[in-house]
Amino acid sequence: MTSTTTSIATCLLCGAGASPALNLPRFAGSSCQECARRVGHLLVNAPTTLTDIWPLLVDDEDELEAEPKVQRADGTTVELRQLTAELKRDLTIEDRMKLAELYGEIGLIREQLEECGRVLAAVPPVDLSQRALNVLFSRELCSPLGLDQLRGYLFPA
Predict the structure, then answer these.
(1) Are 43 and 50 in contact (CB under 8 A)?
(2) Fewest CB atoms within 10 Å of the CB: 20, 65, 120, 135?
């Protein structure tokens, strides 16, 4: 696992000094906490615009296919997506990171990437930020050209 560094480094995204420096494994460089938060917000608010950076964010769900419905303990029926969102609301940031890691273990990569975005957007402690960045900027999930594209999304001209 890639760890954070305690020394000041230059953020590969904004160019500012990053202390603590959060490692971006794919690019052998660092990010500042503020840019990590910005990445999280992008993943939460516009994940489908980032498919050139994280190709597995592509939403392959069939829009015509009905969402599964589940019955709650009180007898009401809701869409599975709605119930899942309600359950996630009560999770701590640590639990959300654990959920992201679990999603990866069971092959739900799009959900894993999106959950990492939620973790980063919440401005978690440095260790949780680093865990989320380790997933997002892994060689397996992040495009090798993703850094330049991501800068364009974070800092439009």
Answers:
(1) yes
(2) 65
